[in-house]
């Protein structure tokens, strides 16, 4: 097991995130923080980077106005961004961090950014998920 994996686990526990699932072979976690609105967030140690991804919603059809709005919102997000999966239907929050010099503050900043995004943009996310 990679030392980065253990370090990331320690940071998550220090930040009081619930580890819902853990796969030591794949070196990934599924975490939640219900108070911050975060559920089923995947944190994957893929040396040399840490990948943080969470499904926000799925579109039933292509909607250029939704894409445009999300791209505009990306400019305001402090850490991370909205991205599409390979199908072009799933909207995901994603951020990547360097594992080699990762510290707890850096991981916390990304997680706080997601929490802030979910709290400030929740009405839009809910309306987009219905389209």
Structure notes:
Strand 1 and strand 2 (about 30-35) form a beta hairpin. The protein is α+β, with helices and mostly antiparallel strands. It has a six-stranded antiparallel β-sheet. Helices cover about 35% and strands about 35% of the residues. It is built from four helices and six strands. It has a single domain, classed as Yope Regulator, Chain: A, CATH 3.30.1460. The radius of gyration is 15 Å and the shape is elongated. The longest helix has 17 residues, at about 105-120.
Separate helix tally: 4
**% residues in beta strands:** 25-35%
Strand count, sense and barrel status of the largest sheet are: 6 strands, antiparallel
User: What would you call the quaternary organization?
Assistant: single chain
SS-derived structural category: alpha+beta
Please describe the structure with a list of short key phrases separated by commas or semicolons.
131 residues; six-stranded antiparallel beta sheet; Yope Regulator, Chain: A; Tir-like; 34% strand; YbjN domain-containing protein; alpha+beta; 4 helices
Compact summary:
InterPro entries: Tir-like. The protein is α+β, with helices and mostly antiparallel strands and 131 residues long. The chain has helices at 3-14, 64-74, 104-120, 122-129, and strands at 18-23, 28-33, 38-46, 49-58, 81-84, 90-98.
């Amino acid at each position: 097991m990679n030392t980065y994996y253990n370090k990331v686990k320690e940071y998550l526990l220090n930040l009081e995130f619930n580890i819902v699932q853990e796969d030591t072979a794949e070196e990934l976690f599924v975490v939640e923080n219900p108070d911050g609105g975060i559920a089923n967030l995947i944190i994957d140690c893929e040396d040399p980077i840490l990948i943080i991804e969470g499904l926000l919603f799925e579109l039933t059809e292509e909607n250029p106005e939704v894409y445009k709005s999300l791209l505009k919102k990306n400019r305001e997000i402090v850490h991370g961004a909205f991205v599409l999966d390979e199908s072009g239907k799933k909207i995901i929050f994603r951020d990547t961090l360097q594992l080699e010099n990762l510290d707890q503050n850096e991981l916390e900043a990304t997680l706080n950014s997601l929490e802030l995004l979910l709290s400030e943009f929740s009405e839009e996310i809910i309306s987009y998920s219905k389209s």
